[in-house]
Amino acid sequence: MIVPPQRAGTGHWYGGGNMVQDQQGTLWLTGRFRNQGDSRTGLGAGERGLELAIYRSDDNAQTFQQVLSLSKADLNVGSREVLSIEGTALRLIDGRVELFVSTEKQGIGYPAELHSHLKPGTGVWTIDRLAADSIAQLSDAVVETILETDDPRFLHMKDPFLGTHGGADCLLFCTHPFCWTSSNTGYIVLDDKTLNVQDANLTFFPRGFTWDVAMTRGTALVALPAVGALEDQDVQLFFYDGGECVRDLDQHATAVKRPRGYSCEELGGVAYCQDGDLNTVQRLSVNHPLFISPHGTGCSRYVDVLATGGNYIVTWQQSQDDGSQPLVMNVVPRAEIEALLKD
After folding, report:
1. Which pLDDT score is estimated for 14?
2. CATH superfamily for domain 13-342
3. Which of 163, 200, 265, 297 could form a disulfide with 188 if both were Cys (CB 3.0 to 4.6 A apart)?
4. Integer Cα distance of 33 and 43 in angstroms
5. What pLDDT is stored for residue 121 in this prediction?
6. CB neighbour list of residue 339: distance below 8 Å, 6 or more residues apart
7. What is the C-alpha to C-alpha distance for residues 39 and 84, in angstroms, rounded to an integer?
């Protein structure tokens, strides 16, 4: 466990971000603290996503120290007031820092024909970008909305993470329809021009048919070594969160008891892509999830994998017996992965 939530209990967690390594070897970790709250009844039901927090490690992931905190108010965009913070992603590129963050904002609204479907006290999720010359300077950066849409099928956009497609850097993210009945994954290629949601592929990795029939939210892409069974092959693992239902459902009293996965308590799955093409994505977790916490609800979600020179550093939110979800970590030597592929 590397970052505990601010409190114990259901609805409290830290995570939903990624880890990057700079040229000096320092590790930077981003995520958000969330305290209990329920969007079905608006802000009066709790604090929800209240703080974006960035940590650093100068001792190869042995310890982490918080170096930056951004509140909901810090992330307002003009008259659009932030109600909750969700997933984040750090990108180090060309000597500068980019921080992608998804927030729920008032002042956007639903399309006119669906106006009555927006629950009182809630907002619409969009993805913003902050750019600066250093992590510290992000606190003074302009918050710019880069992805939003009024298409009811993809109305809420959130949980950004980074990957590649066709040799180009891309931003992947989750979408929800206006009715919140599902979640799916989309992507857009990153470049220096203004991003336009019309250029995004919003349907390349939709929901599954079994354990992930209610949601498929991608969280990480990682290239596997081209050795052994994968010699001369270009394969990426694609980690994602899934679940059978949006809300927890009662199970049959005499049926097999198993974690079903539901909103905020998703389970972990994995797929793979070939030749750097996201559109080749194929599920490995066809009938069952691959990653389930041994504690609490079984929730295991928001996997991120950082490949360094000698290791794969894996982080994820993991359900605990008290209902909370701290950020946990596992460091896997690259040599171990290569040995398994050669076995």
Report:
1. 97
2. Glycosyl hydrolase domain; family 43 (2.115.10.20)
3. 200
4. 16
5. 85
6. none
7. 9
